[in-house]
Amino acid sequence: MKRASNEQYVPSSNIRSAADIERAAAGVIDVDAKTTTYVVMACIIAASGGVLFGYDGGVTGGVESMTQFKQWFFPGGGDSSFYCKYNNKPLQAYSAIMHFTGSLASIAASYFTQHWGRKGSMIIAGTSFCIGAIFQASAKSTVALLFIGRIFWGIGIGFGDHCAFIYTAEMAPPRWRGRLNTLVQLGTIGGIVVANAINIGTNNLIWGWRLSLGLAAVPGLILLMGGLFLPETPNSLVERGYFSEAKSVLQMVRGTKDVDVEFDTIVLANEALKGMESPWKAIFRRRNRPQLILAIAMPFFQQWSGVNGVSFFAPQIFAGINALGSGNKGSLIAAIIVNGVQLIATIITVFIVDKVGRRVLLVSGSTLGFAAEIAVAIVFATSASSNAINLPYGASIASIVLIGLYSISFGFSWGPVGWLVPSEIHDLNTRSAGQSITVFTQLVSGATVTQSKCMQQSGLLPDGVCDVLVRCTFCILLVLLQHSQATSKGSTRIFDAFACSIVSTFLNMLCSLKWGIYVFFGAWQFIAIFFTLFLVPETRGVSIEEAANFVRAHKVWRHVCYPGGVVPQNEVVTSMQRLSGPANEGANPYRGNTFI
C-alpha cells in the first residue's frame, strides 16, 4: 500500500497520429487489447467483494431460522402472523447492525482507496470478513461475539463493495467494462445461492450454524489473497505518481506492449485533475450534479424495487410448499430456487450488457418487476388473511413463480446495472467519493427497507424514536443533494420533497398496507422506468475517461451542469463516436443519451 511518489512522466512520442492525441485528450480511444486471462482473473477475484455481501444476505436469514441458533442466542417466541413474523428484539438488532456499520465504512473507504490504492481496501475488506466469521462461528454463551462479528462483516462489506467496482472498472478494457463489472453483481447473487445451499446442508446439524457462519471466511480469504497478490490498477498508480509501474501493469493486463495511447489518456485525465479541490467538495459542484444524483438514485431504485422486501417475506411465503420439504428445509429449498434463477439471469447479463446497453435492461427489468409485484399483491390479497400463518399451497406455488419472475427481472437489470452505471460515470477525481455515496445509499436503503417495519412492530425502539432514526438516515442522503443546490434549486428540491414525503409515511404504510406493500414497491418500479428514460445516459462503449463529460452532455443534464445548457468549448468531447466493434458499428453517439 504505497501512498505517493514524485516520479515524473513525459507522454510517449509513439502516439500513432495527431488524431490520437486529440482523441486521447477527449478520452475517446480505441483500445486494441486482448481480454487476457490475467485481467479476467483479476476481475473475478475483485468480484469476490460482491460475494461478501451476497453470502451475508444468504446465510444470515437461514441461520436465524435454525432452531439451535435461536434457542442458544435468541430464545423467546415471536409474532406468528403472516405479515410480521419476526418479533425478537436482539435478533433484529443482529440483522441491522451490519448494514449501518457497512454504510459508515463505505465513507471511510473513499479516503483510503484514493490515497492508499484499491488493493489496500481489498486487504481490509478480506481481513475484516475473515475476522467477523471467526468471531461469529466461535460464539458460545453470549451474543457479544456475534455482534462484534457482524460489525467486522459490515466493515468488510463497506470496503469490499467500494473497491470491487472501482478496481474492475479501471482494469477492464473499455469495450468489455460492462461485462466484467457485472461480475461483481454475479458474485453477489452467487454468494446468496451458495449460502442457501450451505444452509440446507447444515440445517439439521446441531452446530450447523457455526459451519454456515465460519465458511464466510472463504470469500474473505479470496479477496484478501487478491489484495496481496494482484497488481494495483494503472489509474490508481498514476493518481499517486507511479508512472513506470502503472505502464508495466497496463501492458500486462492488456497483453500487449502497445498501450501508449491508452496510458497517455490515463495520464492526461489525471493531469487535468491536478490542483482541483478534494473529491468530497468537487462532487457537490454543479458540473458533477448529474453524477451525484445518479450515484444516489441508482442504488435507491435498486433497493426500493423491493428486492430486500421480497426476500424478507420468503420464509413465510414458502412455508406452505410441503412438496419441497416441510418446515424450514422447504423454505430454504424454495429460496435457493428463486435466487438460482436470479443467478442465471445475471450470468446472461454478463454477455449482453455491452451489446444491448444499460437503458434497455433497466427499462425492461422495471417493467417485468412491476408486473410481477402487482401480481404477488393480488395473490396475497385473495389468499392470505391478516391472522394467517402460511399461504395456502396453491397460492404459495403461484408466489414462487411470480417472485421467481421478479428475481429474473432484478437479475438482468437493477441488480447488476444498478451497480455498473454509478461505477463508470465519475471522473478520476470524484470516482472514489461517488462510489462511497453509492454504497452508503445502497446499505442505508437496504437496512431501512428490511428493518424499519420490524424494529417498530417488535418494540426494539419506540415508534417515535424509530421513525426519527429512519428519517435521519434518509436526511443524510438528502443533505448530499441539498448541499448541491447553491446554483440550482429546482429539480433537486422536487426530489427532496418527494423523498421526504415517502419517509414520513413509509412506516405507517408498512404496518397498515400488508399485501399493499408490494403495490408500493411496484410503484417505485414504475417510477424507475421513466427515471431511466429521461435521466440515465447510455454509457455502452464509452471509455471510463470519457464517461463524465458524456453524462454532462446529456440532453437534460447539460441544463443542470451549464448555464443555458451550453457546454463550454474546452469540455466538448470532440470525437463522440463509440468504440469500434460489431456491437457499436454505425451507432449514433448520442443514441440513448436523449429521450426520444
The count of strands amounts to 0
Question: Beta-strand level of the residues, as a percent range?
Answer: under 5%
Secondary structural class: mainly alpha
At CATH's second level, what is the architecture? Up-down Bundle
- Please give the alpha-carbon distance between the first and last residues: 48 Å
Number of domains: 1
**CATH fourth-tier homologous superfamily:** MFS general substrate transporter like domains
The residue ranges in which pLDDT falls below 50 over 5 or more consecutive positions are: 13-30, 452-508, 574-596
Compute the gyration radius: what is it? Answer: 24 Å
The largest sheet, given as strand count, sense and whether it forms a barrel, is: none
Q: Treating each run of at least 4 consecutive H or I residues as one helix, how many helices?
A: 25
| Helix proportion range | 55-70%
CATH topology value: Growth Hormone, Chain: A
| Coarse morphology | globular
The level 1 CATH classification is Mainly Alpha
Averaging pLDDT over every residue, what do you get? 73
H/E order of the elements?
Answer: HHHHHHHHHHHHHHHHHHHHHHHHH
Q: Could you characterize what this model shows?
A:
This protein is mainly alpha-helical. The chain has a single domain (21-535), classed as Growth Hormone, Chain: A, CATH 1.20.1250.20. The protein is built from 25 helices and no strands. It has helices at 18-26, 37-64, 67-73, 89-116, 118-137, 144-171, 177-202, 208-214, 217-229, 234-239, 243-254, 260-273, 279-282, 289-312, 314-318, 327-356, 358-383, 393-411, 417-424, 431-458, 463-482, 490-513, 516-535, 547-552, 557-561. It starts with 17 loop residues before the first helix and ends in a 35-residue tail after the last helix. Residues 13-30, 452-508 and 574-596 have low confidence and may be disordered.
